[in-house]
Design goal:
CATH architecture of the largest domain: 2-Layer Sandwich
CATH class of the largest domain: Alpha Beta
Number of domains: 5
Strand content: 15-25%
Oligomer: single chain
Number of strands: 17
Number of helices: 20
CATH topology of the largest domain: Heat Shock Protein 90
Shape: globular
Helix content: 40-55%
């Protein structure tokens, strides 16, 4: 990259830049860009060069992911001559088609034969196929193995694909995928993140999915709903949620990255599922809100084969159903994280926040999208300006970004004194109240330094604010009073009432 810069330097005059001269401000640009792009794509690195002619900044940009348009603030842009404009439908389709043309999972393995497939996995695949397509039950019994693989869209014209090895291959047949890796790993960890046990599962994944499911300790969970002496009892994890999460990892994993699919079970009742590769839809909100089939798949051929066997639903709805199952249980919603080109989902098998569970039980008519956003607020996660305005319009939240809290309308029906106290602590008082306190304090003392004012005001500010935000609030009050001509700042950093 620097070689390219030296070549560029010979053709252009360097004038230097003062853009974000503070290193911390410059580094924060990576996060700012990630927050606004789909899949959180951002600069690989920002290089700062100090040259005799001036300061130069180089932005190292990653290559565009194949077949996946990258949106900025929800919109797709492209060059139109010297201008920047929205991508048209044909341009978007052209980008998306690159993914289909380069479907890793559809590649034919020239050296592979039916002998590389596991007979038990083939037999189980036929059972699942018949469950999915009962009208073909009589026909399946007359098909030979290759005919079945073709009909189930696991093979192509009798040729063995990477998908066939992943789903049905013998464990030793995984070597046919080299340098790629197809392995799943189950790990049991303590609350302190110490590893207690593990197991590794090569192909056939069709059988490995059930084996991993059996490894997970789906113990009974008992909790006492408010207002009753009779406990509720249910498995910690909805079985559908476990299987859907594992199947999604298999279908969407980037096998070319040669990494394991991991299912980590913690003794504090949470499961973490992770696979290699960016989250192609861009955001989980898009998937669960639109509740429609995804247009792009990293492994379209593999996903379709899994659909034929009833493992995934390519018509959409699987992820949303996981969220709905958690809402019915009054459990926290699944948490998705997208970092370092990996997709990670956390599933919690117990009530973490009794107050939020009470909110769900007392507001059964809340729309799914509203519950999702309230869950984000409860977890102190960032929501967009439009989402905040939407929740505020419904009178579900109060406060100002980033210090948002549940509104009185939401918590009042719960008749919970603790929640009311928390609400008052969050709401605090308006700015005029605090400015009047400062004026009254200065009237009595005549003058004082900043520290006593902090001691007076900060303990009474909203608990939703950080310490730094509270100090900034006091600074804002003092500045406003000074500009209003009510106080002045004397030499020696004393504040004085006028």
């Amino acid at each position: 990259m620097h070689g390219w810069f030296l070549e560029l330097k010979t053709r252009h005059k360097i004038t230097g830049t003062k853009f974000r001269e503070n290193k911390a401000d410059l580094d924060s640009l990576k996060k700012e860009i990630a927050d606004k792009t789909s899949n959180r794509i951002t600069f690989i690195e920002i290089h700062e060069l100090i040259l005799p002619e001036g300061r130069v900044i180089l932005f190292e940009i990653p290559p565009a992911p194949k077949g996946i348009p990258v949106a900025f603030e929800g919109h797709f842009y492209g060059r139109e001559g010297e201008s920047l404009g929205a991508l048209n439908l044909e341009e978007l389709e052209r980008i998306r088609n690159r993914n289909t043309e380069n479907d890793w999972s559809a590649a034919i393995l020239a050296n592979a034969t039916v002998d590389d497939l596991d007979p038990k996995a083939i037999a189980y695949a036929k059972e699942r196929f018949v469950v999915k397509f009962p009208e073909l039950a009589d026909d399946v019994n007359t098909w030979d193995v290759l005919t079945f693989l073709n009909k189930a869209k696991i093979a192509i014209k009798g040729q063995i694909t990477r998908t066939a090895i992943i789903l049905l291959g013998k464990s030793e047949a995984e070597s046919l995928l080299v340098p790629s890796i197809a392995k799943m790993r189950w790990i049991l960890k303590t609350v302190q993140n110490e590893e207690k046990d593990y197991d590794i599962f090569p192909p056939p994944f069709l059988l490995a999915i059930d084996k991993i499911y059996e490894k997970i300790r789906n113990l009974k969970y008992r909790y006492l709903p408010k207002g009753t002496l009779f406990p509720n009892e249910l498995p910690r994890y909805e079985p559908f949620n476990i299987r859907e999460a594992i199947n999604n990892c298999v279908a969407h994993n980037d096998y070319a990255k040669a990494g394991y699919i991991n299912i980590v079970e913690f003794e504090d009742d949470r499961l973490i599922f992770s696979n290699n590769g960016t989250f192609i839809p861009g955001s989980i909100e898009k998937v669960i809100m639109q509740d429609a089939p995804e247009e792009n798949y990293r492994n379209r051929f593999l996903a379709n084969a899994m659909f034929q066997l009833g493992l995934v639903d390519t018509r959409g709805g699987g992820i949303k159903k996981m969220y709905t199952n958690q809402i019915k249980r009054l459990f926290p919603l699944p948490d998705y994280e997208f970092e370092d080109e990996k997709t990670k989902m956390t599933l919690t098998g117990k009530i973490l926040d009794p107050e939020f569970s009470e909110i769900l039980s007392h507001h059964p008519k809340l729309a799914f999208s509203d519950v999702f956003l309230l869950d984000q607020v409860q977890k102190k996660k960032e929501i967009t300006d439009s989402e905040f305005k939407y929740l505020k319009k419904l009178k579900l939240v109060e406060g100002r970004k980033p210090n948002i809290y549940l509104s009185l309308a939401v918590i009042e029906p719960l008749n919970d004194e603790g929640l009311r106290v928390e609400y008052i602590a969050n709401k605090s008082f308006d700015d005029k109240h605090f400015k009047d306190m400062i004026l009254e304090y200065l009237k009595k003392l005549g003058r004082t330094k900043r520290k006593p004012i902090d001691s007076l005001i900060i303990p009474k500010l909203s608990t939703a604010l950080t310490e730094e935000q509270k100090k900034q609030k006091v600074t804002n009050f003092l500045s406003a009073l000074r500009m209003e001509g009510k106080i002045e700042n004397l030499p020696g950093y004393y504040w004085h009432h006028l």
